[in-house]
Amino acid sequence: MMLSDYDRYLFAEGTHHRAYEKLGAHLQEQGGILGTHFAVWAPNAHSVSVIGDFNGWKAGSHPLKQQGVSGVWEDFVPRVKQGALYKYFIVSDVNHYHIEKSDPYAFASEMRPRTASVVWNLSDYQWGDAQWMTGRVKQNALDAPLSIYEVHLGSWMRVPEEGSRWLTYREMAPKLSNYVHQMGFTHVEFLPVMEHPFDGSWGYQTVGYFAPTSRFGSPQDFMFLIDSLHQKGIGVILDWVPSHFPNDPHGLSFFDGTYLYEHADPRKGYHPDWGSSIFNYGRDEVRSFLISSALFWLDKYHVDGLRVDAVASLLYLDYSRKEGEWIPNMYGGRENLEAVTFLRQMNERIYGEYPNVITIAEESTAWPMVSRPTYMGGLGFGIKWDMGWMHDTLVYITKDPVFRKYHHNQLTFRMLYAFTENFVLPLSHDEVTHGKGSLLDKMPGDLWQKFANLRLLFGYMYTQPGKKLLFMGGEFGQWWEWNHETSIQWHLLEYPSHKGLQRWVRDLNALYRSERTLHQSDFDPSGFEWVDCNDADQSVLSFIRKGKAAGETFLIVCNFTPVPRHNYRVGVPQHGHWKEILNSDAHVYGGSGQGNFGGIIAAATPCHHRPYSVNLTLPPLGIVILNLGNSLDTFSGIL
Asked: What is the pTM of this model?
Protein backbone atom coordinates (compact mmCIF):
# COMPACT_ATOMS: atom_id res chain seq x y z
CA MET A 1 0.00 0.00 0.00
CA MET A 2 3.05 2.27 0.12
CA LEU A 3 3.03 5.10 -2.37
CA SER A 4 5.04 4.39 -5.47
CA ASP A 5 7.17 7.00 -7.17
CA TYR A 6 4.42 7.28 -9.77
CA ASP A 7 1.82 7.90 -7.03
CA ARG A 8 3.95 10.69 -5.63
CA TYR A 9 4.45 12.17 -9.07
CA LEU A 10 0.71 12.20 -9.83
CA PHE A 11 -0.15 13.58 -6.40
CA ALA A 12 2.34 16.42 -6.73
CA GLU A 13 1.08 17.11 -10.26
CA GLY A 14 -2.53 17.43 -9.06
CA THR A 15 -3.73 14.46 -11.12
CA HIS A 16 -3.80 11.63 -8.54
CA HIS A 17 -7.57 11.39 -8.40
CA ARG A 18 -7.63 8.17 -6.38
CA ALA A 19 -5.41 9.50 -3.62
CA TYR A 20 -7.73 7.93 -1.03
CA GLU A 21 -6.43 4.53 -2.13
CA LYS A 22 -2.91 5.38 -0.92
CA LEU A 23 -3.12 8.18 1.65
CA GLY A 24 -4.93 7.76 4.95
CA ALA A 25 -5.14 4.55 6.98
CA HIS A 26 -5.37 1.18 5.19
CA LEU A 27 -5.58 -2.22 6.84
CA GLN A 28 -3.08 -4.68 5.36
CA GLU A 29 -0.72 -7.51 6.13
CA GLN A 30 3.06 -7.27 6.06
CA GLY A 31 5.33 -10.20 6.80
CA GLY A 32 2.39 -12.20 8.08
CA ILE A 33 1.41 -9.51 10.57
CA LEU A 34 -1.88 -7.63 10.33
CA GLY A 35 -1.73 -3.90 10.84
CA THR A 36 -2.37 -0.55 9.24
CA HIS A 37 -0.41 1.52 6.76
CA PHE A 38 -0.60 5.25 7.46
CA ALA A 39 0.23 8.03 5.01
CA VAL A 40 -0.29 11.79 5.37
CA TRP A 41 0.80 14.83 3.38
CA ALA A 42 2.67 17.30 5.60
CA PRO A 43 5.58 18.68 3.54
CA ASN A 44 6.64 21.34 6.03
CA ALA A 45 6.62 19.15 9.14
CA HIS A 46 9.83 18.39 11.03
CA SER A 47 8.37 15.08 12.22
CA VAL A 48 5.09 13.18 12.08
CA SER A 49 4.02 10.29 14.28
CA VAL A 50 0.83 8.27 14.66
CA ILE A 51 -0.81 8.42 18.06
CA GLY A 52 -3.87 6.49 19.15
CA ASP A 53 -5.55 4.17 21.58
CA PHE A 54 -3.04 1.47 20.54
CA ASN A 55 -0.03 3.38 21.95
CA GLY A 56 -1.57 5.39 24.76
CA TRP A 57 -1.65 8.52 22.53
CA LYS A 58 2.07 8.88 23.06
CA ALA A 59 3.80 11.12 20.53
CA GLY A 60 6.85 9.58 18.91
CA SER A 61 5.91 5.96 19.63
CA HIS A 62 5.20 5.27 15.99
CA PRO A 63 7.06 7.81 13.85
CA LEU A 64 6.37 8.02 10.13
CA LYS A 65 9.04 8.40 7.47
CA GLN A 66 9.12 11.00 4.74
CA GLN A 67 9.57 9.44 1.33
CA GLY A 68 11.35 11.51 -1.30
CA VAL A 69 10.39 15.12 -1.82
CA SER A 70 6.61 14.60 -2.07
CA GLY A 71 5.98 15.72 1.49
CA VAL A 72 4.15 12.46 2.25
CA TRP A 73 4.97 10.73 5.55
CA GLU A 74 4.12 7.03 5.79
CA ASP A 75 4.81 3.70 7.49
CA PHE A 76 3.21 0.42 8.50
CA VAL A 77 2.17 0.03 12.15
CA PRO A 78 1.62 -3.62 13.14
CA ARG A 79 -1.37 -4.87 15.11
CA VAL A 80 -3.47 -1.72 14.56
CA LYS A 81 -6.87 -3.16 13.75
CA GLN A 82 -10.33 -2.16 12.51
CA GLY A 83 -11.88 0.45 14.79
CA ALA A 84 -8.62 1.78 16.20
CA LEU A 85 -8.66 5.48 17.07
CA TYR A 86 -5.78 7.60 15.80
CA LYS A 87 -4.46 11.04 14.95
CA TYR A 88 -1.23 12.45 13.55
CA PHE A 89 1.10 14.30 15.90
CA ILE A 90 2.82 16.92 13.79
CA VAL A 91 5.88 18.91 14.81
CA SER A 92 7.04 21.82 12.68
CA ASP A 93 10.07 24.07 12.86
CA VAL A 94 7.75 27.01 12.18
CA ASN A 95 7.12 28.81 15.48
CA HIS A 96 7.82 25.56 17.39
CA TYR A 97 4.43 24.35 16.14
CA HIS A 98 3.12 20.99 17.31
CA ILE A 99 -0.44 19.74 17.13
CA GLU A 100 -2.68 16.67 16.93
CA LYS A 101 -4.51 16.43 13.61
CA SER A 102 -7.27 14.19 12.35
CA ASP A 103 -6.52 12.31 9.15
CA PRO A 104 -7.69 14.31 6.09
CA TYR A 105 -8.20 11.01 4.25
CA ALA A 106 -9.86 9.08 7.10
CA PHE A 107 -12.79 6.82 6.14
CA ALA A 108 -14.44 7.23 9.55
CA SER A 109 -14.33 9.54 12.55
CA GLU A 110 -15.34 9.61 16.19
CA MET A 111 -18.68 11.02 17.22
CA ARG A 112 -18.43 14.74 17.92
CA PRO A 113 -17.27 16.44 20.11
CA ARG A 114 -14.43 13.90 19.97
CA THR A 115 -12.23 14.29 16.94
CA ALA A 116 -10.10 11.19 16.43
CA SER A 117 -10.05 9.37 13.11
CA VAL A 118 -10.99 5.68 12.98
CA VAL A 119 -9.24 2.91 11.07
CA TRP A 120 -11.94 1.46 8.85
CA ASN A 121 -12.31 -1.03 6.01
CA LEU A 122 -14.89 -0.12 3.33
CA SER A 123 -14.61 -3.24 1.17
CA ASP A 124 -16.76 -5.67 3.16
CA TYR A 125 -20.21 -4.33 2.23
CA GLN A 126 -22.26 -6.49 -0.16
CA TRP A 127 -24.20 -4.18 -2.47
CA GLY A 128 -27.62 -5.16 -3.78
CA ASP A 129 -28.14 -2.36 -6.28
CA ALA A 130 -26.71 -3.92 -9.44
CA GLN A 131 -29.96 -3.40 -11.35
CA TRP A 132 -30.00 0.29 -10.49
CA MET A 133 -26.33 0.83 -11.30
CA THR A 134 -26.75 -0.85 -14.69
CA GLY A 135 -29.83 1.17 -15.63
CA ARG A 136 -29.12 4.55 -14.06
CA VAL A 137 -27.89 5.96 -17.36
CA LYS A 138 -31.56 6.46 -18.23
CA GLN A 139 -32.54 7.78 -14.79
CA ASN A 140 -29.82 10.45 -14.74
CA ALA A 141 -30.07 11.54 -18.39
CA LEU A 142 -30.73 15.20 -19.18
CA ASP A 143 -33.98 14.29 -20.95
CA ALA A 144 -35.22 12.18 -18.03
CA PRO A 145 -37.55 13.41 -15.26
CA LEU A 146 -35.53 14.70 -12.33
CA SER A 147 -37.59 15.48 -9.23
CA ILE A 148 -35.32 15.85 -6.21
CA TYR A 149 -36.36 15.57 -2.56
CA GLU A 150 -33.81 17.49 -0.46
CA VAL A 151 -33.21 15.96 2.97
CA HIS A 152 -31.33 16.83 6.13
CA LEU A 153 -30.60 13.50 7.81
CA GLY A 154 -30.75 14.81 11.36
CA SER A 155 -34.20 16.37 11.12
CA TRP A 156 -36.22 14.48 8.51
CA MET A 157 -37.61 12.22 11.22
CA ARG A 158 -36.74 11.66 14.86
CA VAL A 159 -37.75 9.29 17.65
CA PRO A 160 -39.78 11.33 20.16
CA GLU A 161 -40.12 8.35 22.52
CA GLU A 162 -36.33 8.41 23.03
CA GLY A 163 -35.71 12.07 23.70
CA SER A 164 -36.22 13.00 20.06
CA ARG A 165 -33.03 11.25 19.01
CA TRP A 166 -31.94 10.94 15.39
CA LEU A 167 -32.78 7.96 13.28
CA THR A 168 -29.73 5.91 12.37
CA TYR A 169 -28.81 5.33 8.74
CA ARG A 170 -30.32 1.83 8.95
CA GLU A 171 -33.48 3.00 10.71
CA MET A 172 -33.97 5.69 8.10
CA ALA A 173 -33.39 3.39 5.13
CA PRO A 174 -36.85 1.73 4.89
CA LYS A 175 -38.75 4.80 6.07
CA LEU A 176 -37.15 7.25 3.66
CA SER A 177 -37.00 4.93 0.66
CA ASN A 178 -40.65 3.92 1.02
CA TYR A 179 -41.81 7.51 1.50
CA VAL A 180 -39.86 8.93 -1.43
CA HIS A 181 -41.05 6.05 -3.63
CA GLN A 182 -44.68 6.65 -2.65
CA MET A 183 -44.36 10.38 -3.27
CA GLY A 184 -42.88 9.80 -6.71
CA PHE A 185 -39.62 11.73 -6.36
CA THR A 186 -36.84 10.41 -8.60
CA HIS A 187 -33.86 11.37 -6.43
CA VAL A 188 -32.93 12.24 -2.87
CA GLU A 189 -30.36 14.95 -2.24
CA PHE A 190 -28.72 14.84 1.18
CA LEU A 191 -27.37 17.97 2.80
CA PRO A 192 -23.66 17.27 3.44
CA VAL A 193 -23.13 13.91 5.13
CA MET A 194 -19.37 14.40 5.33
CA GLU A 195 -18.06 14.56 8.89
CA HIS A 196 -18.41 17.98 10.51
CA PRO A 197 -17.89 19.20 14.08
CA PHE A 198 -20.89 21.55 14.47
CA ASP A 199 -24.51 20.43 14.07
CA GLY A 200 -25.61 23.97 13.30
CA SER A 201 -23.51 24.07 10.12
CA TRP A 202 -25.83 21.38 8.66
CA GLY A 203 -22.70 19.71 7.31
CA TYR A 204 -21.48 22.68 5.29
CA GLN A 205 -18.40 23.08 7.53
CA THR A 206 -16.72 19.85 6.49
CA VAL A 207 -13.64 18.33 8.14
CA GLY A 208 -13.92 14.73 6.89
CA TYR A 209 -13.98 14.77 3.10
CA PHE A 210 -13.87 10.96 2.94
CA ALA A 211 -15.95 10.07 6.00
CA PRO A 212 -19.73 10.01 6.37
CA THR A 213 -20.72 11.50 9.70
CA SER A 214 -20.68 9.06 12.59
CA ARG A 215 -23.81 10.71 14.05
CA PHE A 216 -26.04 8.16 12.36
CA GLY A 217 -23.87 5.05 12.21
CA SER A 218 -20.94 3.45 10.44
CA PRO A 219 -19.82 3.85 6.82
CA GLN A 220 -21.47 0.51 5.99
CA ASP A 221 -24.69 1.77 7.56
CA PHE A 222 -24.61 4.73 5.18
CA MET A 223 -23.99 2.34 2.30
CA PHE A 224 -27.10 0.43 3.40
CA LEU A 225 -29.18 3.62 3.23
CA ILE A 226 -27.99 4.37 -0.31
CA ASP A 227 -28.47 0.72 -1.31
CA SER A 228 -32.05 0.78 0.01
CA LEU A 229 -32.88 3.89 -2.00
CA HIS A 230 -31.36 2.40 -5.14
CA GLN A 231 -33.36 -0.79 -4.72
CA LYS A 232 -36.50 1.37 -4.71
CA GLY A 233 -35.42 3.02 -7.95
CA ILE A 234 -34.34 6.28 -6.28
CA GLY A 235 -31.12 8.09 -7.11
CA VAL A 236 -28.88 9.65 -4.47
CA ILE A 237 -27.19 13.06 -4.77
CA LEU A 238 -24.79 14.36 -2.13
CA ASP A 239 -24.16 17.98 -1.25
CA TRP A 240 -20.41 18.52 -1.48
CA VAL A 241 -18.46 21.54 -0.24
CA PRO A 242 -15.13 22.29 -1.94
CA SER A 243 -15.53 26.03 -1.43
CA HIS A 244 -14.32 26.37 2.16
CA PHE A 245 -13.51 24.46 5.36
CA PRO A 246 -13.68 25.31 9.09
CA ASN A 247 -10.78 26.46 11.22
CA ASP A 248 -11.17 23.79 13.93
CA PRO A 249 -7.67 22.93 15.18
CA HIS A 250 -7.98 19.21 14.48
CA GLY A 251 -8.91 19.80 10.83
CA LEU A 252 -7.19 20.99 7.66
CA SER A 253 -6.44 24.51 8.85
CA PHE A 254 -2.71 25.36 9.25
CA PHE A 255 -2.13 21.65 8.93
CA ASP A 256 1.65 21.27 9.17
CA GLY A 257 2.51 24.61 10.67
CA THR A 258 1.93 26.35 7.35
CA TYR A 259 -1.05 27.36 5.27
CA LEU A 260 -1.10 24.05 3.42
CA TYR A 261 -4.63 23.54 2.16
CA GLU A 262 -5.61 27.23 2.31
CA HIS A 263 -4.14 30.50 1.06
CA ALA A 264 -1.87 32.32 3.50
CA ASP A 265 -3.16 35.74 2.46
CA PRO A 266 -6.60 36.27 4.06
CA ARG A 267 -7.67 38.24 0.99
CA LYS A 268 -7.75 34.88 -0.80
CA GLY A 269 -7.75 32.38 2.05
CA TYR A 270 -10.43 33.61 4.45
CA HIS A 271 -14.16 33.51 3.77
CA PRO A 272 -15.87 36.57 5.30
CA ASP A 273 -19.38 35.10 5.17
CA TRP A 274 -18.68 31.86 7.02
CA GLY A 275 -15.51 32.64 8.98
CA SER A 276 -13.79 29.71 7.33
CA SER A 277 -10.76 28.98 5.15
CA ILE A 278 -10.75 28.90 1.35
CA PHE A 279 -8.89 26.14 -0.46
CA ASN A 280 -5.81 27.02 -2.47
CA TYR A 281 -7.02 25.74 -5.86
CA GLY A 282 -3.71 26.61 -7.47
CA ARG A 283 -1.88 24.04 -5.36
CA ASP A 284 -1.62 20.75 -7.20
CA GLU A 285 -1.86 18.52 -4.13
CA VAL A 286 -5.02 20.34 -2.99
CA ARG A 287 -6.65 19.63 -6.35
CA SER A 288 -5.67 15.97 -5.97
CA PHE A 289 -7.30 15.98 -2.54
CA LEU A 290 -10.57 17.60 -3.64
CA ILE A 291 -11.07 15.70 -6.89
CA SER A 292 -10.23 12.46 -5.08
CA SER A 293 -12.95 13.32 -2.55
CA ALA A 294 -15.49 13.87 -5.33
CA LEU A 295 -14.64 10.57 -7.03
CA PHE A 296 -14.54 8.73 -3.70
CA TRP A 297 -18.28 9.11 -3.07
CA LEU A 298 -19.08 7.96 -6.61
CA ASP A 299 -16.72 5.01 -6.26
CA LYS A 300 -17.15 3.67 -2.74
CA TYR A 301 -20.73 4.78 -2.03
CA HIS A 302 -22.37 4.40 -5.47
CA VAL A 303 -23.83 7.91 -5.35
CA ASP A 304 -25.46 9.23 -8.51
CA GLY A 305 -24.44 12.86 -8.37
CA LEU A 306 -22.82 15.70 -6.49
CA ARG A 307 -24.39 19.09 -5.88
CA VAL A 308 -21.45 21.47 -5.52
CA ASP A 309 -22.15 24.14 -2.92
CA ALA A 310 -21.44 27.86 -3.25
CA VAL A 311 -19.87 27.76 -6.71
CA ALA A 312 -20.13 31.55 -7.03
CA SER A 313 -17.82 31.96 -4.05
CA LEU A 314 -15.21 29.91 -5.91
CA LEU A 315 -15.51 31.81 -9.18
CA TYR A 316 -15.09 35.38 -7.94
CA LEU A 317 -12.11 36.72 -6.06
CA ASP A 318 -14.20 39.63 -4.78
CA TYR A 319 -17.09 37.47 -3.56
CA SER A 320 -18.54 39.18 -0.43
CA ARG A 321 -15.53 41.49 -0.31
CA LYS A 322 -15.26 45.25 -0.47
CA GLU A 323 -12.80 47.18 -2.59
CA GLY A 324 -9.27 46.63 -1.32
CA GLU A 325 -10.18 43.33 0.39
CA TRP A 326 -9.35 41.10 -2.57
CA ILE A 327 -6.46 40.45 -4.96
CA PRO A 328 -7.10 40.63 -8.73
CA ASN A 329 -6.01 37.78 -10.98
CA MET A 330 -2.93 38.01 -13.23
CA TYR A 331 -4.96 39.93 -15.81
CA GLY A 332 -6.41 42.38 -13.30
CA GLY A 333 -9.84 40.73 -13.27
CA ARG A 334 -12.09 39.42 -10.51
CA GLU A 335 -12.34 35.87 -11.84
CA ASN A 336 -10.62 33.16 -9.82
CA LEU A 337 -8.75 31.46 -12.67
CA GLU A 338 -7.34 28.73 -10.44
CA ALA A 339 -10.82 27.78 -9.21
CA VAL A 340 -12.14 27.75 -12.78
CA THR A 341 -9.37 25.34 -13.76
CA PHE A 342 -10.17 23.15 -10.75
CA LEU A 343 -13.91 22.99 -11.52
CA ARG A 344 -13.29 22.12 -15.15
CA GLN A 345 -10.76 19.47 -14.22
CA MET A 346 -13.15 18.04 -11.62
CA ASN A 347 -16.08 17.78 -14.02
CA GLU A 348 -13.95 16.33 -16.79
CA ARG A 349 -12.66 13.66 -14.45
CA ILE A 350 -16.09 12.84 -12.99
CA TYR A 351 -17.83 12.52 -16.34
CA GLY A 352 -14.82 10.76 -17.83
CA GLU A 353 -14.96 7.99 -15.22
CA TYR A 354 -18.67 8.07 -14.35
CA PRO A 355 -20.59 9.28 -17.42
CA ASN A 356 -23.91 8.17 -15.90
CA VAL A 357 -23.86 10.56 -12.91
CA ILE A 358 -24.83 14.22 -12.51
CA THR A 359 -22.90 17.22 -11.26
CA ILE A 360 -25.03 20.16 -10.15
CA ALA A 361 -23.80 23.69 -9.51
CA GLU A 362 -25.33 25.96 -6.91
CA GLU A 363 -24.31 29.10 -8.78
CA SER A 364 -26.17 32.35 -8.24
CA THR A 365 -24.64 34.72 -10.80
CA ALA A 366 -24.70 35.16 -14.57
CA TRP A 367 -21.39 33.37 -15.10
CA PRO A 368 -21.78 31.97 -18.64
CA MET A 369 -21.93 28.30 -19.63
CA VAL A 370 -21.83 26.77 -16.15
CA SER A 371 -23.65 23.70 -17.47
CA ARG A 372 -21.91 23.50 -20.82
CA PRO A 373 -19.00 21.19 -21.75
CA THR A 374 -15.47 22.32 -21.08
CA TYR A 375 -14.53 21.88 -24.74
CA MET A 376 -17.02 24.68 -25.50
CA GLY A 377 -15.53 26.91 -22.82
CA GLY A 378 -18.02 25.91 -20.13
CA LEU A 379 -17.42 24.77 -16.56
CA GLY A 380 -18.62 21.26 -17.39
CA PHE A 381 -21.48 20.85 -14.88
CA GLY A 382 -24.52 18.84 -15.94
CA ILE A 383 -27.11 21.11 -14.31
CA LYS A 384 -27.25 24.49 -12.56
CA TRP A 385 -29.64 25.78 -9.90
CA ASP A 386 -31.87 28.57 -11.24
CA MET A 387 -31.54 30.94 -8.29
CA GLY A 388 -33.09 33.75 -10.31
CA TRP A 389 -36.30 31.78 -10.83
CA MET A 390 -36.43 30.94 -7.13
CA HIS A 391 -35.95 34.55 -6.04
CA ASP A 392 -38.31 36.17 -8.55
CA THR A 393 -41.05 33.60 -8.09
CA LEU A 394 -41.00 33.77 -4.30
CA VAL A 395 -40.99 37.57 -4.34
CA TYR A 396 -44.05 37.46 -6.61
CA ILE A 397 -46.02 34.69 -4.89
CA THR A 398 -45.57 36.17 -1.41
CA LYS A 399 -47.21 39.45 -2.42
CA ASP A 400 -50.89 40.10 -1.81
CA PRO A 401 -52.68 39.14 -5.06
CA VAL A 402 -54.06 42.67 -5.40
CA PHE A 403 -50.50 43.89 -6.07
CA ARG A 404 -49.33 41.03 -8.26
CA LYS A 405 -50.28 42.68 -11.53
CA TYR A 406 -47.57 45.26 -10.89
CA HIS A 407 -44.95 42.51 -10.63
CA HIS A 408 -46.03 40.29 -13.52
CA ASN A 409 -42.63 40.51 -15.17
CA GLN A 410 -41.08 38.59 -12.27
CA LEU A 411 -42.88 35.51 -13.58
CA THR A 412 -42.17 36.07 -17.26
CA PHE A 413 -38.55 37.31 -17.12
CA ARG A 414 -37.15 33.80 -16.70
CA MET A 415 -38.03 32.79 -20.24
CA LEU A 416 -35.49 35.28 -21.58
CA TYR A 417 -32.68 33.08 -20.20
CA ALA A 418 -34.37 29.75 -19.38
CA PHE A 419 -32.46 27.76 -21.98
CA THR A 420 -29.03 29.33 -21.63
CA GLU A 421 -28.23 26.65 -19.01
CA ASN A 422 -29.54 23.27 -17.95
CA PHE A 423 -31.56 24.51 -15.00
CA VAL A 424 -33.12 22.89 -11.95
CA LEU A 425 -35.81 24.92 -10.16
CA PRO A 426 -34.94 24.86 -6.44
CA LEU A 427 -37.22 25.43 -3.47
CA SER A 428 -34.47 24.43 -1.08
CA HIS A 429 -33.59 24.55 2.60
CA ASP A 430 -32.11 28.03 2.10
CA GLU A 431 -35.60 29.44 1.59
CA VAL A 432 -37.09 28.15 4.86
CA THR A 433 -34.56 29.12 7.48
CA HIS A 434 -32.80 32.11 9.08
CA GLY A 435 -36.07 33.94 9.69
CA LYS A 436 -37.51 33.42 6.21
CA GLY A 437 -40.38 31.23 7.44
CA SER A 438 -41.75 28.06 5.88
CA LEU A 439 -43.11 28.02 2.33
CA LEU A 440 -46.66 27.77 3.60
CA ASP A 441 -46.19 30.56 6.11
CA LYS A 442 -44.79 32.84 3.38
CA MET A 443 -48.02 32.65 1.41
CA PRO A 444 -50.39 35.64 1.73
CA GLY A 445 -54.06 35.53 2.67
CA ASP A 446 -56.20 33.48 5.01
CA LEU A 447 -55.68 29.79 5.73
CA TRP A 448 -57.46 28.61 2.57
CA GLN A 449 -55.57 31.07 0.39
CA LYS A 450 -52.22 30.06 1.87
CA PHE A 451 -52.74 26.45 0.83
CA ALA A 452 -54.14 27.45 -2.56
CA ASN A 453 -51.14 29.71 -3.21
CA LEU A 454 -48.72 26.93 -2.30
CA ARG A 455 -50.48 24.41 -4.54
CA LEU A 456 -50.32 26.99 -7.33
CA LEU A 457 -46.61 27.57 -6.73
CA PHE A 458 -45.84 23.85 -6.91
CA GLY A 459 -47.99 23.40 -10.00
CA TYR A 460 -46.26 26.31 -11.71
CA MET A 461 -42.82 24.86 -10.84
CA TYR A 462 -43.65 21.37 -12.13
CA THR A 463 -44.98 22.64 -15.45
CA GLN A 464 -42.14 25.09 -16.15
CA PRO A 465 -39.13 23.86 -18.19
CA GLY A 466 -36.41 22.63 -15.85
CA LYS A 467 -35.80 19.89 -13.31
CA LYS A 468 -37.39 20.15 -9.83
CA LEU A 469 -36.11 20.30 -6.25
CA LEU A 470 -38.20 20.54 -3.07
CA PHE A 471 -36.94 20.58 0.51
CA MET A 472 -38.47 18.15 3.00
CA GLY A 473 -41.61 19.35 4.76
CA GLY A 474 -42.62 21.62 1.93
CA GLU A 475 -44.51 18.80 0.25
CA PHE A 476 -47.14 18.73 3.00
CA GLY A 477 -47.01 22.35 4.15
CA GLN A 478 -44.87 22.49 7.25
CA TRP A 479 -45.85 25.51 9.33
CA TRP A 480 -42.63 25.97 11.23
CA GLU A 481 -39.49 27.36 9.74
CA TRP A 482 -37.03 24.47 9.38
CA ASN A 483 -35.06 23.73 12.56
CA HIS A 484 -32.20 21.23 12.27
CA GLU A 485 -32.66 20.22 15.91
CA THR A 486 -36.21 18.87 15.54
CA SER A 487 -38.15 16.63 13.19
CA ILE A 488 -40.30 18.12 10.46
CA GLN A 489 -43.97 18.29 11.46
CA TRP A 490 -45.28 14.90 10.38
CA HIS A 491 -48.31 15.21 12.68
CA LEU A 492 -49.77 17.85 10.34
CA LEU A 493 -50.74 15.06 7.95
CA GLU A 494 -53.64 14.35 10.33
CA TYR A 495 -55.31 17.45 8.86
CA PRO A 496 -57.08 17.33 5.45
CA SER A 497 -55.51 20.52 4.10
CA HIS A 498 -51.96 19.21 4.64
CA LYS A 499 -52.90 15.75 3.40
CA GLY A 500 -54.42 17.32 0.29
CA LEU A 501 -51.27 19.33 -0.41
CA GLN A 502 -49.16 16.19 -0.07
CA ARG A 503 -51.43 14.39 -2.53
CA TRP A 504 -51.08 17.30 -4.97
CA VAL A 505 -47.27 16.99 -4.90
CA ARG A 506 -47.52 13.23 -5.35
CA ASP A 507 -49.80 13.67 -8.37
CA LEU A 508 -47.53 16.34 -9.84
CA ASN A 509 -44.61 13.95 -9.53
CA ALA A 510 -46.63 11.21 -11.20
CA LEU A 511 -47.61 13.48 -14.10
CA TYR A 512 -44.11 14.88 -14.52
CA ARG A 513 -42.54 11.42 -14.55
CA SER A 514 -45.06 9.69 -16.79
CA GLU A 515 -45.46 12.40 -19.44
CA ARG A 516 -42.34 12.86 -21.49
CA THR A 517 -43.76 16.12 -22.83
CA LEU A 518 -43.16 17.62 -19.38
CA HIS A 519 -39.55 16.49 -18.97
CA GLN A 520 -38.02 15.46 -22.27
CA SER A 521 -37.50 19.05 -23.43
CA ASP A 522 -36.67 20.69 -20.10
CA PHE A 523 -33.56 22.19 -21.69
CA ASP A 524 -34.88 22.67 -25.23
CA PRO A 525 -36.67 25.91 -26.25
CA SER A 526 -38.70 24.01 -28.83
CA GLY A 527 -40.65 22.42 -25.97
CA PHE A 528 -42.14 25.66 -24.64
CA GLU A 529 -44.44 28.37 -26.00
CA TRP A 530 -46.21 31.24 -24.35
CA VAL A 531 -49.90 31.47 -25.14
CA ASP A 532 -50.35 34.71 -23.26
CA CYS A 533 -47.70 36.14 -20.95
CA ASN A 534 -49.13 39.66 -20.94
CA ASP A 535 -52.39 39.39 -19.00
CA ALA A 536 -50.98 41.26 -16.01
CA ASP A 537 -54.31 42.94 -15.18
CA GLN A 538 -55.90 39.59 -14.36
CA SER A 539 -52.62 37.98 -13.18
CA VAL A 540 -53.07 35.03 -15.51
CA LEU A 541 -50.33 33.12 -17.34
CA SER A 542 -50.93 30.56 -20.06
CA PHE A 543 -48.34 28.49 -21.89
CA ILE A 544 -47.85 25.26 -23.79
CA ARG A 545 -45.41 22.41 -23.26
CA LYS A 546 -44.73 20.48 -26.45
CA GLY A 547 -43.30 17.03 -26.95
CA LYS A 548 -41.15 15.81 -29.80
CA ALA A 549 -43.94 13.74 -31.37
CA ALA A 550 -47.11 15.05 -33.01
CA GLY A 551 -49.98 15.62 -30.61
CA GLU A 552 -47.83 15.75 -27.46
CA THR A 553 -49.18 19.05 -26.21
CA PHE A 554 -50.10 20.32 -22.75
CA LEU A 555 -51.88 23.58 -22.02
CA ILE A 556 -51.18 25.16 -18.63
CA VAL A 557 -53.14 28.12 -17.30
CA CYS A 558 -52.38 29.78 -13.94
CA ASN A 559 -54.68 32.21 -12.12
CA PHE A 560 -52.67 34.08 -9.50
CA THR A 561 -55.68 35.86 -7.96
CA PRO A 562 -58.38 34.56 -5.57
CA VAL A 563 -61.04 35.58 -8.12
CA PRO A 564 -62.51 32.72 -10.22
CA ARG A 565 -62.40 33.59 -13.90
CA HIS A 566 -65.28 32.22 -15.95
CA ASN A 567 -65.39 32.19 -19.73
CA TYR A 568 -61.68 32.82 -19.96
CA ARG A 569 -60.70 32.13 -23.55
CA VAL A 570 -57.28 30.69 -24.35
CA GLY A 571 -55.90 29.99 -27.82
CA VAL A 572 -54.82 26.42 -28.63
CA PRO A 573 -53.01 24.98 -31.64
CA GLN A 574 -55.38 22.10 -32.38
CA HIS A 575 -59.03 21.16 -32.49
CA GLY A 576 -60.29 18.35 -30.27
CA HIS A 577 -61.14 17.51 -26.70
CA TRP A 578 -58.74 19.08 -24.22
CA LYS A 579 -58.84 16.92 -21.13
CA GLU A 580 -58.34 18.53 -17.72
CA ILE A 581 -55.62 16.31 -16.32
CA LEU A 582 -54.92 18.14 -13.07
CA ASN A 583 -56.63 21.01 -11.28
CA SER A 584 -55.12 22.36 -8.07
CA ASP A 585 -58.59 23.46 -6.92
CA ALA A 586 -60.01 19.94 -6.85
CA HIS A 587 -61.67 18.93 -3.59
CA VAL A 588 -59.17 16.11 -3.01
CA TYR A 589 -56.39 18.69 -2.74
CA GLY A 590 -58.33 20.98 -0.42
CA GLY A 591 -59.69 23.26 -3.13
CA SER A 592 -63.15 24.67 -3.82
CA GLY A 593 -63.89 22.34 -6.71
CA GLN A 594 -64.13 24.85 -9.55
CA GLY A 595 -62.99 23.65 -12.95
CA ASN A 596 -63.97 22.46 -16.39
CA PHE A 597 -65.87 19.22 -15.74
CA GLY A 598 -62.97 17.08 -16.87
CA GLY A 599 -62.28 18.88 -20.13
CA ILE A 600 -63.54 21.03 -22.96
CA ILE A 601 -63.77 20.87 -26.75
CA ALA A 602 -61.81 23.49 -28.65
CA ALA A 603 -63.86 25.82 -30.82
CA ALA A 604 -62.85 27.19 -34.22
CA THR A 605 -62.60 30.63 -32.66
CA PRO A 606 -59.20 32.21 -33.23
CA CYS A 607 -57.50 33.58 -30.12
CA HIS A 608 -53.93 34.48 -29.17
CA HIS A 609 -52.91 34.16 -32.83
CA ARG A 610 -54.03 30.53 -32.85
CA PRO A 611 -56.79 28.99 -35.00
CA TYR A 612 -58.69 27.39 -32.10
CA SER A 613 -59.51 28.25 -28.52
CA VAL A 614 -61.02 26.85 -25.35
CA ASN A 615 -63.38 28.69 -23.02
CA LEU A 616 -62.18 27.88 -19.52
CA THR A 617 -63.14 28.33 -15.91
CA LEU A 618 -60.01 29.33 -14.02
CA PRO A 619 -60.22 28.39 -10.33
CA PRO A 620 -59.15 30.92 -7.70
CA LEU A 621 -55.41 30.82 -6.98
CA GLY A 622 -55.36 27.75 -9.16
CA ILE A 623 -53.61 26.03 -12.02
CA VAL A 624 -55.28 23.80 -14.61
CA ILE A 625 -53.33 21.40 -16.79
CA LEU A 626 -55.02 20.24 -19.98
CA ASN A 627 -54.01 17.79 -22.69
CA LEU A 628 -55.41 16.75 -26.02
CA GLY A 629 -56.17 13.38 -24.47
CA ASN A 630 -54.75 11.20 -27.18
CA SER A 631 -51.13 11.90 -26.28
CA LEU A 632 -51.08 10.64 -22.70
CA ASP A 633 -48.60 7.88 -22.01
CA THR A 634 -49.63 6.47 -18.64
CA PHE A 635 -51.04 9.25 -16.47
CA SER A 636 -54.83 9.37 -16.33
CA GLY A 637 -55.34 12.03 -13.68
CA ILE A 638 -57.97 11.88 -10.96
CA LEU A 639 -60.75 14.01 -12.44
From this structure: 0.96
